[in-house]
Amino acid sequence: MNFLETIIGRRKASVEEAKGRLSIDKLINLVSNVRPANDFRKSLLRAPGDNVRIIAEIKRASPSKGNIALDIVPAEVARDYAAGGASAISVLTEDSFFKGSVNDLKAVREAVPGMPLLRKDFIVDEYQIYESVLIGADAVLLIVAALEKDVLARFVRLSRERGLCPLVEVHADRELDAALAAGADVIGVNNRDLATFEVSTDASERMAKKIPSGIVTISESGISDVGGLRAAGELGYHSVLMGEHFMRASDRVAEVRKFSLPAGAK
Among 15, 44, 177, 193, which one is least packed by beta carbons within 10 Å? Predict the structure, then answer.
């Protein structure tokens, strides 16, 4: 079973439902004078010897892990992450498989106005890019495996035009080529294969050798201890994205703080 195809199919249907409630023309008009407030890319930059930046994720559930923390209050989690030293926060807004919502991101935006926010979702329509501006995101996730090359390039351009940072996610060499061709300057390497949901940090190790200098890099998924964080730093990654580990922590502030430590850099 290809999980990504299943999720994309459901996401396309939900976007059409959203258009029925609010047309794209009205949506564009609503955000015509709105600009994201925080610089997501800048928040992840680090010089050699600096801490690896932490993107802490708010994640209620996932297809692979089932329910993780359904009853969270997103604003409270966001404040914990900020207090622990996270450089940015990722918010899952996909509802069918991850149990998130745009309201989660809205609540987080209100709780931590100065924190760069990533809308973590399956972006399949330009409608979602305008919607991301409306709900308060500073960055959007664009998954190479979910988009045709021309659509990816168009979404990268549109995101930037609207003031959003496009985080382009790859898992394989051919996807990296597509990301670079689309002009990506922030690339996330997903250690999880979205077709099978199998996880291996070998993906980050393999891709680190291929990503050109000047690209801000993020290692996503599969890191749950300080050793994994340090390994990502030694590979040259600017940041790691962690969700499930923090969501299950009894003291999120202390757990995020534990990961905010120096790790080697190129």
Answer: 177
